């Protein structure tokens, strides 16, 4: 068996059906709104998520930024989770480009409560920024792929509606959340003003994300996308793969959740490694190497040498992500690699 790449579900390659559809895609200039394949993808994404309209963007990062730009003014405040991707992993675009001030709230497994939002609200006062948007992340990457439940989301959207706040969902892995909860993805946009999801993660497309929301929001988002240089031309090449993904790649995500669960249980049984099994709710597994007296970076480098790709989070957490192409056999070999790495540490110490 070759290299087992659990660094991310972004490493998935397009399927043969996607490549065929890309080659055969009907194309036009999308800045003129004349690419029929892009138009079909945007309509289909909006339909799947129960929204009025959609917009193809280049990446999850661009989708989040476009969504914030379209719903705020410079100087406004955005409430988000302290470990969220928008806050930590998007090059501070919300401040640098959109001119927003972040208000990070600590979450439990990536989730903050409606009460926390209420407490963070700023009263109208000449000194304060205006709280404008609440940003949610579902599933939550840094918390280990944890899922925001419908009840948790409702609690937050209710507070937001009472106070006139907009809600944006970084739904890079929203279909993982829907599959984990056993609900249609459209249920996860209830009370939400905008949502970005990625085609290029577990759904296996080579490029792209889609933003959905109301028609009026999408018109603004389209301007923001142009501002960021994201107005593409014959983007139907990308959209063609996205259409295949929405039709055929969502339900299979359950398999990735099963392999992640299997991996988590096996890793939890290994000496010196610790997994918070409660956080393993979709296709991400975080495990702690502190008990080994090493750093996550060192351990990841050792696993790489042995043929297992992982990433790190902070000084002690290792992240594994399951995806299409990772079968039970790959998990078994991954465990053997981990066991061998642990054994060699015992011998050398
Ligand atoms: N996440 C990537 C890396 O950036 C860490 C990964 O491998 O998981 N929101 C969330 C929740 C994400 O996990 C990511 C990408 C993004 C947004 C950004 O998407 P892209 O990479 O398409 O800009």
Q: What radius of gyration results from the CA coordinates? A: 21 Å
- Widest sheet: strand order? 2-8-7-6-5-3-4
Q: Give the fraction of residues assigned to helices.
A: 40-55%
- The CATH topology name of the largest domain reads Aspartate Aminotransferase, domain 2
Strand and helix order: EHHEHEHHEHEHEHEEHHHEEHEEEH
> Could you tell me the number of beta strands?
13
Main beta sheet strand tally, sense and closure: 7 strands, mixed
User: How far apart, in Å, are the first and last alpha carbons?
Assistant: 29 Å
State the low-pLDDT regions, or none.
none
Structural class: alpha/beta
Tell me what you see in this structure.
With 349 residues, the chain is α/β, with parallel strands linked by helices. Helix content is 41%, strand content 16%. It has helices at 16-24, 36-48, 60-70, 85-88, 93-96, 114-120, 150-162, 174-181, 215-227, 236-248, 253-268, 296-305, 328-348, and strands spanning 4-5, 53-57, 77-81, 101-105, 131-137, 166-170, 194-198, 209-213, 274-275, 284-288, 308-309, 311-313, 317-321. The protein has a seven-stranded mixed beta sheet, with helices on both faces. α1 packs antiparallel against α10 and α3 (60-70) packs across α9. The longest helix has 21 residues, at 328-348. The mean pLDDT is 97. The site of ligand TLP has 14 residues, from α3.
């Amino acid at each position: 068996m070759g290299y087992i790449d659990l660094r991310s579900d972004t490493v998935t390659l397009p399927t043969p059906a996607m490549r065929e559809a890309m080659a055969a895609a009907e194309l036009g200039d999308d800045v003129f709104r004349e690419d029929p394949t892009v138009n079909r993808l945007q309509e289909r994404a909006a339909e799947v998520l129960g929204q009025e309209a959609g917009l193809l963007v280049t990446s999850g990062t661009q989708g989040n930024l476009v969504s914030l730009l379209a719903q705020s003014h410079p100087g406004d405040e955005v409430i988000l989770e302290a470990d969220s991707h928008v806050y930590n992993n998007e090059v501070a675009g919300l401040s640098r480009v959109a001119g927003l001030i972040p208000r990070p709230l600590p979450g439990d497994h990536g989730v903050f409560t409606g009460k926390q939002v209420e407490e963070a609200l700023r009263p109208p006062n000449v000194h304060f920024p205006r709280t404008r948007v609440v940003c949610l992340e579902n599933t939550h990457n840094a918390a280990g792929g944890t899922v925001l439940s419908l009840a948790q989301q409702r609690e937050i959207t209710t507070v937001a509606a009472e106070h006139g706040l907009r809600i944006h969902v970084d739904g890079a892995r929203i279909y993982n959340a829907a599959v984990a909860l056993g609900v249609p993805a459209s249920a996860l946009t209830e009370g939400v003003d905008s949502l970005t999801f990625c085609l290029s993660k577990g759904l296996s497309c080579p490029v792209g994300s889609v933003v959905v929301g109301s028609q009026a929001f999408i018109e603004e988002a389209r301007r923001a996308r142009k501002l960021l240089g994201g107005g593409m031309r014959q983007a139907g090449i990308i959209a063609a793969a996205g259409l295949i993904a929405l039709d055929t790649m969502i339900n299979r995500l359950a398999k990735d959740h099963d392999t992640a669960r299997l991996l988590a249980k096996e890793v939890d049984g290994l000496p010196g490694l610790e997994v918070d099994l409660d956080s393993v709710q979709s296709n991400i597994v975080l495990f702690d190497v502190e008990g080994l007296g090493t750093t996550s970076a060192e351990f990841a480098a050792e696993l790489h040498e042995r043929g297992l790709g992982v990433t790190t989070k902070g000084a002690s957490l290792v992240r594994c992500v399951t995806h299409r192409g990772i079968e039970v056999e790959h998990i078994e070999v991954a465990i053997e690699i981990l066991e061998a790495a642990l054994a060699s540490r015992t011998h050398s110490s």
